[in-house]
Amino acid sequence: MAHTLPQRPDPGEAAAPDDAPEAPPEDASPMTLMDKGENELTGSASEESQETTTSTIITTTVITTEQAPAPCSVSFSDPEGYIDSSDYPPLPLSSFLECMYNVTVYTGYGVELQVKSVNLSDGELLSIRGVDGPTLTVLANQTLLVEGQVIRSPTNTISVYFRTFQDDVLGTFQLHYQAFMLSCNFPRRPDYGDVTVMDLHPGGAAHFHCHLGYELQGAKTLTCMNASKPHWSSEEPVCSAPCGGAVHNATIGRVLSPSYPGNTNGSQFCVWTIEAPEGQKLHLHFERLSLHEKDRMMVYSGLINKSAPLYDSLQTENVPFEGLLSEGNSIRIEFTSDQARAASAFNIRFEAFEKGHCYEPYIQNGNFTTSDPTYNIGTTVEFTCDPGHSLEQGPAIIECINVRDPYWNDTEPLCRAMCGGELSAVAGVVLSPNWPEPYVEGEDCIWKIHVGEEKRIFLDIQL
């Protein structure tokens, strides 16, 4: 195999480079070379000018100046006066009007505004605001203002704000203001109770009480406090029927089915003990008794459950509408319920009376007259019903008999709202059956009202 080896050049020979510069022609002069260089530079610049584009950006800045309002502020401190739109200055050019009218009176007084006239253009704003420190409360604005309207501030300062953009025709308004003494709001009357207000101004008091059978939950008396911003000393109380209780020296009262809010375990065991003064007896009158089949009521003639039983709801289905009489001066009532919500309802009226007398009769939705207010032997009582009711389940007249142990010769009647009937009186009332209790479903009642041939009938329906 033959190999070819690289040979070293001969030292006597000069090595010629691969990229040897080209020799200039013999006739080339220095000027010719300069012209050539300039041409090369010019050609290079021409090529670059074809590839470069020059752009000019013009930026325009627009400065907008916000239209400044023309201020208009008027303050009033007199106890009475007028706020009139003619009080503001002429509207400057290229501006709008913004007016603030502030009325401040003595501490303990408020400001009452009455709208005398108001005639605003579209886009104009008129706002009446109550001022309470840094807080502004809108009391009325241009959409609600009418002539004769009265607006009262909750404090001694009121503010009227007016703004308009009109150039020629401006709206007009006139408000009359006067100071009035600040007061507390009328307290809410509790359900099943009432309230008596002595004075609504600071220092005044409101007294609360409940109807028979209910107890007051909360303060019995509230006081109006703070002259600058009057308010009641605490929240209004409520009346609720308690689960049990004790009554001493009883005269007249009620035992009601307990109010169930707050009953968390779904069951109740309530005990009421009623004790009259010595030498007196007690009478129970069942105005309403509707028990759930699993609930139970027991009545004893005494203070303990070992006393003589007078009534057991599980032993009898009949409601003792004729009432129950104690053997002595005390009675015990027990009510047991395992229901998760109120399923039973009862309203039992009790009263104490002297031995040797009959007890005072009672009739719901009616009234009676008596021949002897002490209800001694021989006393007669005559019953009448309220309009819209009729006597049922008893006579209109009863008599107190039996010298040894006085009692009424019959039970008190009931006054029930009629289901239909013929009516010919000059005026009267038509009530839903069993009023004020709910009526029974499925009843078909027709009332016929007859008047003179040349007369008409006016019906005032209240639902």
What's the helix and strand layout?
Blueprint: H1 30-51, E1 69-76, E2 80-84, E3 96-104, E4 109-119, E5 125-132, E6 135-141, E7 150-152, E8 157-164, E9 172-181, E10 193-197, E11 205-210, E12 215-217, E13 221-225, E14 231-232, E15 238-240, E16 245-247, E17 252-256, E18 268-275, E19 280-290, E20 296-301, E21 308-312, E22 324-325, E23 330-337, E24 345-354, E25 366-370, E26 380-385, E27 389-392, E28 397-401, E29 407-408, E30 414-417, E31 421-423, E32 447-449
Parallel strand pairs: 1-3, 16-18, 31-32
Antiparallel strand pairs: 2-9, 3-8, 4-7, 4-9, 5-6, 5-8, 10-11, 11-13, 12-15, 13-14, 17-24, 18-23, 19-22, 19-24, 20-21, 20-23, 25-26, 26-28, 27-30, 28-29
Disulfide bonds: 72-99, 243-270
GO biological process, one term: regulation of protein kinase C signaling
Domain CUB: 72-180, 243-353, 419-463
Q: Briefly, what is this?
A:
It contains 1 helix and 32 strands. The protein has one helix at 30-51, and strands at 69-76, 80-84, 96-104, 109-119, 125-132, 135-141, 150-152, 157-164, 172-181, 193-197, 205-210, 215-217, 221-225, 231-232, 238-240, 245-247, 252-256, 268-275, 280-290, 296-301, 308-312, 324-325, 330-337, 345-354, 366-370, 380-385, 389-392, 397-401, 407-408, 414-417, 421-423, 447-449.
